[in-house]
Amino acid sequence: MPRQIYLYTKSILERVSFDAKLFCKELEKATRMLLPYEIDQLREWLLSFTQEKPELRQCMVYIEN
What we know:
The protein has helices at residues 2-15, 20-33, 36-49. The chain is mainly α and 65 residues long.
C-alpha cells in the first residue's frame, strides 16, 4: 500500500509541475504522507525531474534534511 502512495505522489507532482507554487504545496503535503525511505526515493526522483525545470528546484527545501 505505501508504494501506491509514493507512485500517486509522483504522478500528482508531474501533473502540477507547470506551477511552481502548486508544486511546492503538493510536495509539502507529500512529505507528511510518505515514509522516510519513500521521501529519500522522492528526493532522488526530484533531482532528476527538476533538471529540466530549474524553477521547481526552490521546492526542494521541503524535503532537505
